[in-house]
Specification:
single chain, alpha+beta, SH3 type barrels, 5 strands
């Protein structure tokens, strides 16, 4: 599933990474986006270029194109 398919308030779990820059993967992992981590989509920018997620007690803002590196599963409530 893609992060672009989620709406604010949606919960998801990271289960891996798509192909991409190894350096960027390491950066995401250092911010807590590791396999098994659960996060919530907090906000979407008005022009849909940025996505804010809430993970491990803090907010993280990513470009949607960069967030596509994440392989995620939506968590049903």
């Amino acid at each position: 599933m893609s992060i672009n398919n989620l709406k604010p308030g949606s919960r998801a779990t990271v289960f891996g990474f798509n192909q991409g820059s190894c350096t960027y993967k390491q950066k995401l992992m250092s911010m807590g986006l590791v396999p098994g981590a659960e996060f919530i989509i907090s906000k979407l920018s008005p022009v849909n270029d940025m996505v804010e997620i809430f993970i491990n007690g803090f907010s993280l803002i990513l470009r949607r194109s960069e967030a596509e590196i994440l392989k995620i599963d939506k968590v049903c409530m």
